């Protein structure tokens, strides 16, 4: 079974966010498209069901009706990933009803992350009860029997739903990284004891959590949302902003500015450091006067070092929006744009300010990520941005924050009942997961001279089926977009011959040799290069199944 979904050609990650749900500003937001399992009262039923493995045998997917085939034991070896890596789409179709997703971990071949996808301001219809239980059952078995599951991330809604399940199964897992988010405080003693017993855990990140001192392997502990002021050992270092200009100019004068990165430039009442190449981002919000914003935007075309821009535009302000539009349609280096609009004091203005922004997006070829936080936009204005993004060939990720449900009408209807709405959302999740996984694996081809089956197969799939991902691959591999095509073709050419194809897919050890037939008929090794080339055009490296060992669950 190939891990393939019928999806649009472009990688597209859509985030529709509503005020008061997605969390504090600045928080890392991933693909949040639907609400979590909402009632903690069913936790016991979900947990007890998790042990009934027999109910998974022969089940069909929620949307494709394909029979789910699964060997419950992990088949990972030192040189081969577990067989489930090839069937993530099928696994995720079952897990989706439990609001979970399996993803490949970038840079860690064969290691998988089990991730909760349960945060969103939109309420999808709930799946049928038996589907939720089947998803929970699969989640339980993956954590218990698969050492390839190296990371687990659980969001607040999901934690409330499956806390008991986690207490039951985590001691059997081989997790290296664990991320838990929850609202209840103090935390349950059972979870504390469970985490302390994990022998392979290396990284722990929790929203509110006491330090687990008894963990034998923990090396990284992350806290978010917890005040540290009461801890005497916490030293807070303040930055003297008055010295920043002097420091930057000193670094430039000494010729070492290209070795220093200062991140984002937070402009205030002037933009004296805008052309300082140590800054890669510009922040123009809150109390920055509109004249300063306009001046900065007009200078940005000369600042090739600035690749991200965060801008707050008062609604109806044509001066700032026009300056932004000029910059957006002329830049070739801007990768991320975040625009927020607040309420206007005067509502008597035309929509020209918004139209020029939208039109500039259609003329831009560099943006990869677009973020809009808006208030009370008209249906027409929201639909215009949706149309612009849909027509773009370079925007890969969109975050659209709106306090109304207008965005639902503009970006797609999710009120069609569980099967249809969930099928659409799953397709978006799977397209994003598939493409990010392909990129992460394929990027390894530039780091070695040896042929690796998995990175070569991912590279081949990108080149043959998803060519629009080559530019993203170039960024990951740290080569230019102009070079990546030639490098990829040169690498894949080494897998073109009959012997190389059969060797890299482990069909033969060295070369193809067929026993002569009594009737003298042509055999595989009789094919000349031209004939094999015609055959090879129809073959992918992934078409040869990876041999796996068959072991039983205990």
What descriptive keywords fit this protein?
554 residues; alpha/beta; Leucine-rich repeat, LRR (right-handed beta-alpha superhelix); 7-stranded parallel beta sheet; 6-stranded mixed beta sheet; 13 strands; disordered N terminus
Task: Summarize the structure in short.
Helix content is 35%, strand content 12%. The protein has 554 residues and is an alpha/beta fold.
Q: How is this structure best described in words?
A:
This protein has 554 residues and is an alpha/beta fold. The protein folds into three domains: 23-223, no CATH class; 241-411, Leucine-rich repeat, LRR (right-handed beta-alpha superhelix) (Alpha-Beta Horseshoe), CATH 3.80.10; 444-543, no CATH class. The chain contains 17 helices and 13 strands. The strands form two sheets. It has a seven-stranded parallel beta sheet. A six-stranded mixed beta sheet has the order 2-3-4-5-6-7. α12 crosses α13 (453-465). The longest helix has 25 residues, at 418-442. The two termini are 26 Å apart.
């Amino acid at each position: 079974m190939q891990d393939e979904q019928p999806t649009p050609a472009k990688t597209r990650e859509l985030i529709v966010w509503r005020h008061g749900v997605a969390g504090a500003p600045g928080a890392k937001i991933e693909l949040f498209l639907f609400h979590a399992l909402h009632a903690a009262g069913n936790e016991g039923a979900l947990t007890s069901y998790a042990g009934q493995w027999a109910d998974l045998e022969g089940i069909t997917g929620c949307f494709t009706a394909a029979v789910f085939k699964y060997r419950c034991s992990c088949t990972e070896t030192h040189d081969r990933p577990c067989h489930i890596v090839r069937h993530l789409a099928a696994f995720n179709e079952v897990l989706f009803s439990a609001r979970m997703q399996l993803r490949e971990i970038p840079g860690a071949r064969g290691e998988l992350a089990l991730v909760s996808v349960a945060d969103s301001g939109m309420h999808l219809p709930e799946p049928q009860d038996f589907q939720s239980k089947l998803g929970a059952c699969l989640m339980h078995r993956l954590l218990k029997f698969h050492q390839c599951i190296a990371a687990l991330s659980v969001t607040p809604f999901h934690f409330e739903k499956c806390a008991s399940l986690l207490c039951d199964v985590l001691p059997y897992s081989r997790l290296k990284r664990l991320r838990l988010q929850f609202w209840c405080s103090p935390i349950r003693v059972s979870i504390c004891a469970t985490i302390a017993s994990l022998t392979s855990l290396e990284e722990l990140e929790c929203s509110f959590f006491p330090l687990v001192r008894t963990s034998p392997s923990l090396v990284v502990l992350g806290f978010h949302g917890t005040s540290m002021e009461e801890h005497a050992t916490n030293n807070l270092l303040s930055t003297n902003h008055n010295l920043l200009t002097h420091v930057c100019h000193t670094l430039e004068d000494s010729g070492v500015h290209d070795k220093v990165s200062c991140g984002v430039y937070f402009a205030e009442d002037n933009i004296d450091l805008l052309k300082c190449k140590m800054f890669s981002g510009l922040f123009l919000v809150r109390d920055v006067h509109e004249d300063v914003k306009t001046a900065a935007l007009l200078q940005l075309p000369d600042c090739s070092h600035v690749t991200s821009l965060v801008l707050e535009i008062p609604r109806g302000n044509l001066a700032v929006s026009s300056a932004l539009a000029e910059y957006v349609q002329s830049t070739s280096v801007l990768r991320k744009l975040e625009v927020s609009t607040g309420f206007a004091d005067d509502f008597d203005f035309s929509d020209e300010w918004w139209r020029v922004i939208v039109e500039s997006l259609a003329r831009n070829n560099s943006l990869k990520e677009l973020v809009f936080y808006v208030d009370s936009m008209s249906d027409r204005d929201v639909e215009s941005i949706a149309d612009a993004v849909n027509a773009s060939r370079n925007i890969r990720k969109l975050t659209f924050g709106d306090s109304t449900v207008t965005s639902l009408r503009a970006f797609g209807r999710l009120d069609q009942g569980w099967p249809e709405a969930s099928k659409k959302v799953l397709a978006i999740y799977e397209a994003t997961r598939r493409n990010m996984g392909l990129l992460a694996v394929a990027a390894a081809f530039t780091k070695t001279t040896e042929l690796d089956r998995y990175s070569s197969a991912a590279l081949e799939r990108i080149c043959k089926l998803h060519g629009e991902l080559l530019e993203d691959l170039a960024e990951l591999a740290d080569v230019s977009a102009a070079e990546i095509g030639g490098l990829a073709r040169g690498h894949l050419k080494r897998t073109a011959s009959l012997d190389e194809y059969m060797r890299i897919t482990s069909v033969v050890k060295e070369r193809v040799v067929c026993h002569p037939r009594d009737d003298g008929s042509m055999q595989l090794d009789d094919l000349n290069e031209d004939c094999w080339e015609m055959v090879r055009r129809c073959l992918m490296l992934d078409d040869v199944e990876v041999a796996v060992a068959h072991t039983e669950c205990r």
